[in-house]
Amino acid sequence: MSIEGTIVPTKPEGEKCTAEVMIAMPDGLLIQGLKMLLEARGVQVGKLCSDAKDIDKILECAPTPGILLVDTDLPNLNLVSLSKSIKGGRTKIILLGEFFHPAGLRLYQKFGVNNAVLKSDSADDLVKTILGTRNGSLYRSPRIAEAYRLANAQVETIETITLREAEVLRLIVRLYTNKQIAVILKISVKTVETHRSHILDKTGNPNLAKLTDMANCLIITAEQKPGGKREHYEYGQK
Asked: What is the mean pLDDT of residues 39-47?
C-alpha cells in the first residue's frame, strides 16, 4: 500500500472508523507514514513499537478489544510466543506482509492470528480489514481471500511436514547452510538435502527462507503429534 503523495481524509463508505490500532513494524519512517494514513481515514492509532520485544509494553495499554497490526518483518517476531501473551482474545492480531503462503495462513489461525493484509493491498483494504476484524464482520482483501481459498486444499499437505523437517525449515529461514544444519542437528548433509527436498514438495514454495514464522508454527504442530518430542539444540554462531 502506498503512503506517498497527498493523504486524503476519506474512509470506506458506510463504515465508522472507531478502531484503535497498535502498530508493530521495523521501519520508523514507514510506521509513522502508516500511522498518518490510518488516522487520515479516521482510524485511531495507539501505541507503536519497532521490535517484538516491546509488544508486551504496548499491550498493557490496549483497549478491549484492540487490534495489533504486526509486520512479518518485525525483529524477534515469534507468533507462537505472541499468541500466548494475548489472553482471552483481548487483542486481535492482523499480520501485514509482502507474501503469505496459503497454508501458512491457516496455521497462523491456530496460533491466534485473526486476519492478514498484504503490503501491496490498497489503503481501503487495510482499513476494512481492521474494522471487520475488530467488529467480527470478517473482511479480507481479494488476494488474501483467494489465499485462504487455496489454503483449504493445501493445509492437509503442509501439516504432513514432520518434526525433523520443521526443524530443518526453521534453520533454513535463519539462513544456515546445509552443512551448518547437518552439524546442529547431528545428521548428514545428504539427509538435510533430502529433508529440504521434502519441504519444497510439501510447501510448493521455492523460496523457503520466506516461510520464517511458519516454521515455528509447524514445529509446534508437529510436536503435538504422537511421538513429537523435540530435542533442544544449540544453534551457536553462524
From this structure: 87
Look at residue 146 and give its three-state secondary structure.
Answer: helix
With a CB cutoff of 8 Å and minimum separation 6, the contacts of 158 are 101, 103, 104, 106, 107, 202, 203, 218
Question: Angle 187-189-193 (CA atoms, 0-180°, nearest 5)?
Answer: 110
Handedness of CA 94, 99, 102, 104 (dihedral sign): negative
Would you kindly state where each structural domain of the chain is located, as residue ranges? Answer: 20-152, 159-223
Rounded mean pLDDT, 115-142: 90
Report helix, strand or coil for 120. Answer: coil
Q: What CATH superfamily classification does 20-152 receive? A: Response regulator (3.40.50.2300)
- Domain 159-223 fold is Arc Repressor Mutant, subunit A (1.10.10)
- Find how far residue 44's CA is from the centre of its chain: 22
Query: Which pLDDT value is given to residue 210?
Result: 64
Helices (H), the chain: 28-40, 55-59, 79-85, 102-110, 123-135, 142-158, 163-173, 178-185, 189-203, 212-223
